[in-house]
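Workshop exercise sheet. Pairs work together: one partner reads the sequence aloud, the other fills in the structure field after running the prediction. Swap roles for the next sheet.
Pair: D.N. / O.F.
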Amino acid sequence: MKCPTACGVSRTSLVVLSAILLIFSFPGFNIWILAWIALVPLFFAVENQKPLKVFLISYLTGFLFFLGTVYWLIHVTLPGMIIAAAYLALYFGCFGLIIRCADGYSARYEALVFFPAAWVTLEWIRSHALTGFGWQLLGYSQSFNPPVIQIADISGVYGVSFLIVMFNAAIFMFIKNFRKKEDFYIPLAMSAILICAVLGYGYYRLNNVFTGEKLKVAIVQGNIPQDEKWDRRFADIIMSKYEALTKEAVKEKADLVIWPETSVPGFVENEKNLFDRVKNLVVEIDTPLLLGAPRREETEKQDIYFNSAYLFLKDGGIQDRYDKIHLVPFGEYLPFKDALSFVHRLARRPIGDFIAGKEFTIFRFFARRSTKDKNYSFNLSKRIGFSTLICFEDIFPDLTREFVKKNS
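Structure field:
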């Protein structure tokens, strides 16, 4: 079996193929099985190349991949999206250089551990550098593959990433060694055994699901266009829409109503008319309301801003507030602001200048319904404690872990 480059397949084609396979493996397209072969073209593209070329080939693969997966930043800033993709692609470039250093081992069993270990190390660094931008970690491609992702309760998403890269390395080694007829099947067999063990654990976990107490939640989505969201001319229309949807939702006897991130078109703590409007709504529906809104805090030097979530209780008062901890680079704040100040000028909309929160807030409330409801099993003698992640924060497992530690 000849290698792709030996069959006349250009390295550019391999780069594009690898990027496309990665893009289509993630949620949105949900062809998760593609992730298990997506890196194989890249491995062949960098084979026997000089370090600089290896870096450029790997970098281009990453750049194309991230352009196809951080596209949502274009709603804020096209230059910011390109810069974000360019930054994230650096980790692909570094991965290429690392596996280039192990070129002599690529046909041996060590690659089954070395390749995935290098990949996972870079994913961890990417998730923490510059406050972290852990977008599209490879393990997340398996979101619609429940048996495989159960291992994450032990290893986190990084364990799933490790498994995928290991299988890609095994396929690469299988193709390279096939012509030699010498143990070409062993790497594939070794990885298959590990995958079977993970699947066994996954099916065990899925068949032993813990059934907890039930809570009825109404989620309200106004689906407000970004061009209208912060235009004061639409503020009353937006609030009216959320009020109408909420009143309709509580007819189903919800215990809690949830509005989206920054759903309130203003500073609900600072603007009395907005606060009173939310308060009156909550008192009317007699149901706690969790909502998202920006927060402004006055300081001696200047006002500072947070992306926050508020819990309004049934009496209309604010029980507590959570300030978003992990902000979106190039969306909610600009890394290296002085050096990249030109991005502000080129952005279609102003890039946020938010401040990161520090507190892991646990919201608490009592459910509304009677225990006579046969479909309801919550113990009303206990206050319900929960936490919320805001948008992009759901890709940071360490945040979830901290909330759970605080009995969320």
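Discussion prompt: The two ends are 55 Å apart (CA to CA). What would you look at next?
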